[in-house]
Amino acid sequence: MSLIHQLLGDETYDPFLSMINKCPILSTPTDWKETKDSHVFISDLPGLKKEEVKVEVDEGRVLRISGERKNNVVDEDVDDKNTTWHRIERCRGKFQRRFRLP
After folding, report:
1. Cβ(99)–Cβ(62) under 8 Å?
2. Could you count the other beta carbons within 10 Å of the beta carbon of residue 16?
3. Residue 53 parent element (H or E)
4. Averaged over 12-19, what is the pLDDT?
5. Residue pair 94/58 in contact by the 8 Å Cβ criterion
6. What are the entry keywords (predicted)?
7. For residue 82, which phi and psi values (nearest 5 degrees)?
8. Is-contact 30 43, C-beta < 8 A?
9. How many CA atoms lie within 13 A of 102 on its CB side?
């Protein structure tokens, strides 16, 4: 048990996961680098297929990366009486990142 858990007296509380659940944008970490010829964006999008992610440029200056993580795994088990979920920590739902280009 971490010091934070001991101080708060709650073994199930995880401040990082709590932030992700409140702010889905944190579940899409993105690195941005500029080379001589281009700007390169690398986003962590586990579980998504290429066609499930939209990459657009708005107004010629704003890169927008968006998509949705579906809740398929949980939805499949809703009616299954033999399945009990104990914890769901992976973020689901819509996400969007925007970057103003130079």
Report:
1. yes
2. 10
3. strand 53-58
4. 56
5. no
6. Stress response
7. -90, 5
8. yes
9. 7
DSSP 8-state secondary structure symbol assigned to residue 75: H
- How far, in Å, CA of 31 to CA of 21, rounded? 21
CA distance 78 to 46: 23
Q: Please give the average per-residue pLDDT across 55-75, as a whole number.
A: 83
The amino acid that residue 86 corresponds to is H
**Highest CATH level, class, for 28-100:** mainly beta
Task: Choose among 52, 79, 80: nearest CA to 66.
Answer: 52
Q: Where are the domains of the chain?
A: 28-100
| Spatial CB neighbours of 30, under 8 Å, sequence gap ≥ 6 | 41, 42, 43, 44, 65, 97, 99
Strand, helix or coil at 32?
A: strand
Alpha helices (runs of H) in the chain, residue ranges in sequence order:
3-8, 15-22, 72-77
Structure tokens belonging to residue 27:
């579940």
Banded model confidence at residue 88, pLDDT cuts 50, 70, 90: confident
Length of the chain: 102
